[in-house]
Amino acid sequence: MLTGSPILVLFVAGALAFLTVLHFWLATRYDHGRSIQGPLEEERAIFARITEKRATLADIEHDLQKRREALAVVADVQAEVDALTRKRDDLLDEWNQMEPRRQEVLALRRELEEVQVEKLRFDGEFAAAKAEHEEIRDRLARAERLLDQIESLKKEREELANRIEQLKPELRLLEEAKERVAHLDGRAIALEADVARLQGQIDAGQDRVDELDTRIAASRNAAAEVENARTKALADLSAVELALRGAEAQSRDAEERMRRNQAGLDRIKADLDASRLELTDLQDQVGELTSHVNELQEQKAVLAAERSNAVFSLDDMRREIDRLEETRAMLEARNAKLSRQSGEAGTSDDDPLRELKVEPQLITVLRNWEESEAIDENDALQRVQGHFRATGLTYSDRKLRAFHTAMKVNESTQMAVLAGISGTGKSQLPRQYAAGMGIGFLQVPVQPRWDSPQDLMGFYNYVEGRFRPTDMARALWAMDELNNPEGALHDRMLMILLDEMNLARVEYYFSDFLSRLESRPAAFEVGEGSRRKDAEIELEIPTPDGKSPRIFPGYNLLFAGTMNEDESTQSLSDKVVDRANVIRFAAPRKIDSGAAGRERPADVALKRSTWQRWAQPRRADHERKDAASKIEQMAEMMKDIGRPFGHRLGRAMLSYVDLYPRTQGIPDIVNHALADQVEMRLLPKLRGIEVEAKRQELDELEAFVSGLGDTELATAISKSVAAAETTGQFVWLGVGRE
Fold first, then answer.
1. Burial class of residue 237 in the structure, from the number of CB atoms within 10 Å of its CB (0-12 exposed, 13-18 middle, 19+ buried)
2. How many CA atoms lie within 13 A of 449 on its CB side?
3. What are phi and psi of 366, to 5 degrees?
4. Which of 102, 464, 578, 673 maximizes the CB count within 10 A of its CB?
């Protein structure tokens, strides 16, 4: 057991030693593997690079093979290169030898560039000179043409003057013919008097003939009675002779009575014969007078024909002379214009605004009025009513306040139009209102021939070289405190009335002016020139500085117009109706006597500052909201009727409500003013609508007006609708108010 144990121990020890050595070797091997891991990886990388280099070497050898193949032609290329090198060297030597020449060429090039720059400058100057030369040549040609035209116009003028001189004898002959016509007229009048006198004599003779016929008839009746009496007497005599042959006395009495009767019958026959002779004479005289009258009438007809021919000839000659004078004036104007263009006309030292600065009489009168004290608006309206009564005029208080408010809203509504039949006081209302208020008044009668704004403002006469302004232009200039600060009338108001404004087409002569009024800025912005430039009226007046004078129609101006409604007038367009309060004057219910009352009050001038104070808003916020709501209802109704209106008219109606003066006895000012606007702004727009097709909408409008409390206006609408049943189209007849 003991002998076997050491062996086992040795075996175990040997095994352990072997395991230890093995473990150590394995550990060493592991450490060696770990230590050579990096070099192995580097070796692998080197092998990869070697492989890559070998591939590159193969490629290089392939390229080298190609290059070797190309080396066969390298000698030729090298020879060519050597030749080119030698040529280059020769060229370099030549280039070096040509350096002075090159410098000379560069100098020449720089000089050439300078010459080209100079040439370009001279070309520019030459082009400018050439253009100036062409312009001068054109101007000379134009001047020559103008001179030729002037010469031709002078010749034409001389020919016209000669023709006028040639026509002057004919004119004298015509004047003599006119005098002869006047003489013949006098003679005709005298002959007419003779005819009248002879006719009177004929009438007197005829009366005498009638009297003689009456006397003859009476004589014949008397003769018949005498003959009857004689017959009866003879019968009685026979009876007496038969009955009383022996009564000698009775027989003598009967014979005496018969003789007397016979004598009376003879006298009657003599008178009858004398009357017949007188009748024959009178008939002869009547025949002579009739023939004389016929001769006079024939002579009168001949004189009338001669007079007519002479008048026609005179009219023709006058028309010809007028035409020649117009042609002469036109040619003189053209001559003056051409003379100015060609530099022949000199400049005038006269003030180009001299005619415009002539102050109209109404401005002078207004300037001399005393200023009124600060006055309440209602007191001023009562003063106007007193002025009406003093001049024998009668206008309802409501119509006066409506017109007054229409004047106050001139920022949103440019004018008031008074329409209706003739003789209802349309022109007198603004005239006497202005006088009672203390506002200047200018009446502008519109003529049927007006067709341009020049008819309102005037024109520039090129013949006289002066501007010929109208009274309206002078008045506007005198009221323009911005463009005429030194000569303007300050702190005053002026009303301009276009009387019978629809005799001519309003769009032709007033449309541009109305657009200027509409373009005016707000009152607090008129001091800025850029704001008011579109509203200013530029006058055609040449001035030395080249700036034409301008007139600004400010808010110190009030505009009104009248229009009659007959066959000789034009209807207003929608543009004018939209920008105006139309007050219609209905036919009066009774004729006013027109008797003047007490003395009229003294004239005092209303201050513009007072007017501006009156033009401040009067309504409270809740009243404005109520008015705006009802205006929207009106807009819907007008849209349904087919006559819609826009924001401008709505704002204008609201402004009218806002500025209506507060009046005692009117509890609801808003409804009162809105009813006025229905009358003045909406009903005129309904002209021409088909009543049958819009009957329901018109009934709604009538009900709306009744809701505003104006029963008179609602009744007037109903009457206008009923009157339109015959024609089928609506025509507003107006409302008559007491």
1. middle
2. 2
3. -65, -35
4. 673
d(CA 352, CA 477) in angstroms, rounded, equals 14
Q: pLDDT band for position 1 (50/70/90)? A: very low
Cα(first)–Cα(last) distance of the chain, in Å?
A: 167
Number of CB atoms found within 10 A of residue 131's CB:
10
Which residue has 């819009």 as its token pair?
694
User: How many secondary structure helices (H) and strands (E) does the chain include?
Assistant: 19, 11
What's the rounded Cα separation, in Å, for the pair 572 and 453? Answer: 17
How many CA atoms, within 13 angstroms, populate the side-chain half-sphere of residue 685? Answer: 27
- CATH code that applies to domain 133-341: 1.20.1270
* CA dist., res. 381 & res. 391, Å (int): 15
Contact yes or no for 573/501 (Cβ under 8 A): no
Buried b (16+ CB within 10 A) or exposed e, 630-668: bbeebbebbeebebebeeebbebbbbbbbbbbeeeebee
Q: What is the mean pLDDT of residues 208-228?
A: 63
For residue 716, the surrounding DSSP H or E stretch is helix 711-723
Q: What is the pLDDT of residue 576?
A: 80
Residues 6+ apart with CB under 8 A from 402: 581, 583, 676, 680
The share of the chain scoring above pLDDT 70, in percent, equals 68
Q: Hey, CA dihedral for 136, 141, 144, 145, is it positive or negative?
A: negative
Nearest to 735 by CA among 581, 587, 564, 531: 587
Return the pLDDT at 44. Answer: 74
- Amino acid found at 656: Y
C-beta separation of 505 from 453 below 8 A: no
Distance CA 421, CA 401 (A): 21
CA–CA dist 667, 365 (Å, integer): 41
Q: What is the dihedral of CA 409, 410, 415, 416, to 10 degrees?
A: 20
Cβ-contact 526, 482 below 8 angstroms? yes
Q: pLDDT per residue over 111-154, tens digit each? A: 777 777 776 776 767 766 676 777 777 777 676 777 777 777 77
3-state DSSP call for residue 558?
strand
Residues in the chain, total: 738
Top CATH class, 350-587: alpha beta
- Specify the DSSP element, H or E, that contains 512: helix 511-518
Q: Residue 445 has which token pair?
A: 């009668």
Consecutive H or E run containing 461: strand 458-461
Residue 716 is encoded by which pair of tokens? 């007037």
Please say whether the beta carbons of 479 and 551 come within 8 A. no
Look at residue 507 in the predicted model and tell me its pLDDT: 83
User: Based on the number of CB atoms within 10 Å of its own CB, is 471 exposed (0-12), middle (13-18) or buried (19 or more)?
Assistant: middle
Q: What is the pLDDT of residues 66-83, one digit of tens each?
A: 777 777 666 676 777 777
554 close to 703: Cβ distance less than 8 angstroms: no
Distance CA 293, CA 287 (A): 10
Pinpoint the residues of the chain covered by CATH 3.40.50.300. 350-587
pLDDT of residue 194: 61
Identify the DSSP state of 569: S
Task: State which H helix or E strand residue 587 sits in.
Answer: none
Q: Is the pLDDT of residue 279 over 70?
A: no
Beta strands in 640-706 (DSSP E): none
Rounded mean pLDDT, 718-737: 84
Q: Which amino acid is at 669?
A: I
In this predicted structure, the answer to whether residue 479 has a pLDDT above a threshold of 90 is: yes
Q: Which two tokens stand for residue 717?
A: 């609408």
Domain with CATH 1.20.1270 in the chain: 133-341
